[in-house]
Amino acid sequence: MQDAEAVWQESKTKRLAALEELGSYFREAPWSQFAYTIFWDFFTPSFHCPRPVERVGRLGDGGKWVCGFDHIAKKKDCIIYSYGISDEITFEQEVLERSNCAIRMYDYTINTTNGKAADLVKKYEGRAKLYGLGLGEKDTDNLRTLKTEMDRNGDVFIDILKIDIEGGEFNVMRSILKEFSRSSHLPFAQLQIELHLVYQHGDVLNFFSKWIDALENAGLRAFFSEPNQIPNVIENRAHIDYIEYSFYNSKIDQDYFYAL
Question: 156, 227, 234, 245: which has the highest count of C-beta atoms within 10 A?
């Protein structure tokens, strides 16, 4: 883990130097012909996950890259939160098929009594739950904060937190960092999150740099990323602004992946 942290730190040093040298290309036209080709190069994952990394769920949109899932699956008290279900449940389905994990699924845009997610709950009654709520910065009629839901469910730690909420992830993650700022570490071991920069305007590079810095300061380390190019094909976009990231929480007990 110390070696992985050292490699990550060196990578971040190089990132900051590159941003200083090339960042001006992005100030006026963040998705110009030159800029978009190197945007994600600034944020290439460099942290070494201490266990094998594998895709859980289908190939293409829907699957998530997870660190040490085979190890996590053996836990008797494994907890997974999945925000943003829609009609794509292959990640959740494989989790339930291959593990002893309990999974809490959230989506306020779907029918919680009929459909694929509802059928999954019926099949894995007791381990799978589906809520017609979304993840928010504060509690509203159809949104709840992560802390609110963890308290309601009686959960103190999450093994995998999956977030796919179509652009809301940036503000929500800031809120989560604030919610748990007094804790020694964030209450999850991994974060699998899809980012949607299409909804951001202005100085996108500066915006994203500050956002990912905040995650890293809280101990999160990116160990995998995968561009989602479906919007590029469907909408004929030149630049990639939908991308999957997987983060490992470096502040949890280092024995987590070795002494389960």
Answer: 245
Q: Cα 229 to the chain's mean position, in Å?
A: 17
Q: Give tens-digit pLDDT for 97-156.
A: 999 999 999 999 999 999 999 999 999 999 999 999 999 999 999 999 999 999 999 999
CA 207 and chain centroid, separation: 18
DSSP string covering 90-116: HHHHHHHHH---EEEEE-TTS-SSSSH
**Beta carbons of 65 and 226 less than 8 angstroms apart:** yes
144's tokens:
């709840």
3-state secondary structure of 255: helix
- Report the relative pairing of strands 128-131 and 134-135 from DSSP bridges: unpaired
* H and E: helices and strands count for the chain: 10, 11
Residue with token string 């990640």: 91
DSSP category for residue 125: B
CA atoms within 13 A on the CB side of 193: 22
Angle CA(156)–CA(157)–CA(163) in degrees, nearest 5?
120
Task: Kindly report whether the global pTM for this prediction surpasses the value 0.85.
Answer: yes
- Considering only CA atoms, which of 218, 208, 209 is closest in space to residue 186? 218
| Residue corresponding to tokens 């999850």 | 188
Under 8 Å between Cβ of 155 and 79: yes
Name every residue whose Cβ is closer than 8 Å to that of residue 120 and which is 6 or more positions away in sequence: 89, 92, 93, 96, 105, 128, 130
